[in-house]
Design goal:
- It contains twelve helices and three strands.
- Helix 2 (about 20-50) packs antiparallel against helix 4.
- About 75% of the residues lie in helices and about 0% in strands.
- The protein is mostly helical and about 300 residues long.
- The chain has helices at about 5-10, 20-50, 60-75, 80-85, 95-125, 130-135, 140-165, 180-185, 195-225, 230-260, 270-290, 295-309, and strands spanning about 10-15, 90, 175.
Length: about 300
């Protein structure tokens, strides 16, 4: 393991938005507000799922898992970012950088696969309604979530050490607000094309393959909806799937553009904004998308809040 870097001993400097000092206070206020809403919203969905037995169905089991992932996703880097935005100190320890990168890689990968699992759940609900509970039995739901977590951990276990052990010849300044893989690879003073291509391969398996499965699931759902004679049935099917489709569009739109480019040809500013979007804005919006469009969640929330008074 080559460590001619000072980074192993002294850590890294997260430049973030330090080239725009007037923007830092604005970003601190906006990001603190968004992070607070994300924590409150996702924690509420998890709490409601636990407390209301009517929500103990596959759909809400996956939704509670998504909320937990969103909490982990944002918490892996936003608190550190807020600290760095607030004051002049922009440093992060080497161990802190490793933990941040590992968390980011694993949780982000799990979320990609979980969204595909949720699309399959919607396919079973719309296309096989009479057999839905037989198909999506609790053991299968647990196995699907376990596969998602296992795949995410494999990605992080492989890519995190490879990224962190690249020789950087003493370079410590990360042109990002977190220890993210593309930014760390760009700092290498050795040929990192092999690591970039491996990252691209993992991106195909973890980003594009689940996205393809989502598109196939919604292709079948669209065909089933078009065959429905009842307008009420069509409205119910669209309502059932619209929240998930919105979440998929927000998450995959940014993450696909970010990671499906060999050599990460996106500009640094683009990378920062896209990372901030899928790391903070999406987890903030997800609970709102699901609660505002879902009568069962709103009813359960009203019931739980009423119980507290």
């Amino acid at each position: 393991m080559e460590r001619c870097n000072d980074s192993a001993e002294y850590g890294f400097i997260l430049l973030g938005f330090s080239d725009r000092p007037k923007l830092e206070l604005v970003l601190f206020i906006v990001n603190f507000a968004l992070y607070s809403v994300a924590v409150l919203g996702n924690s509420t969905i998890i709490l409601v799922y636990i407390l209301d037995t009517r929500l103990h169905t596959p759909m809400y089991f996956f939704l509670a898992n998504l909320s937990f992932l969103d909490l982990c996703f944002s918490t892996s880097c936003i608190p550190q970012m807020l600290v760095n935005l607030w004051g002049p100190d922009k440093t992060i320890s080497y161990a802190g950088c490793v933990v941040q990168l590992f968390s980011f890689l694993s949780v982000g990968s799990v979320e990609c696969i979980l969204l595909a699992v949720m699309a399959y759940d919607r396919y079973a609900a719309v296309c096989k309604p009479l057999h839905y509970l037989v198909i999506m039995h609790p053991q299968l739901c647990l196995r699907l979530v376990a596969v998602a977590w296992g795949s995410g951990l494999v990605n992080a276990i492989v890519m995190c050490p490879l990224t962190m052990t690249l020789s950087r010849c003493g370079r410590r300044r990360v042109n990002h607000f977190l220890c993210e893989m593309p930014a760390l690879i760009k700092m290498a003073c050795v040929d990192a094309r092999a690591v970039e291509m491996l990252a691209f391969t993992f991106a195909i398996l973890i980003v594009l393959l689940p996205l393809a499965l989502i598109l196939v699931s919604y292709g079948h759902i669209s065909a089933a909806v078009l065959k429905m004679r009842s307008a009420a049935g069509r409205r119910k099917a669209v309502s059932t799937c619209s929240s998930h489709l919105t979440v998929v569009s927000l998450f995959y739109g940014s993450i696909t553009y970010m990671y499906m480019q060999p050599g990460n040809s996106a500009s640094q500013d683009q990378g920062k904004l896209l990372t901030l979007f899928y790391n903070l804005v999406t987890p903030t919006l997800n609970p709102l998308i699901y609660t505002l469009r879902n009568k069962e969640v709103k009813g359960a929330l009203t019931k739980v809040l009423g119980r507290q008074h």
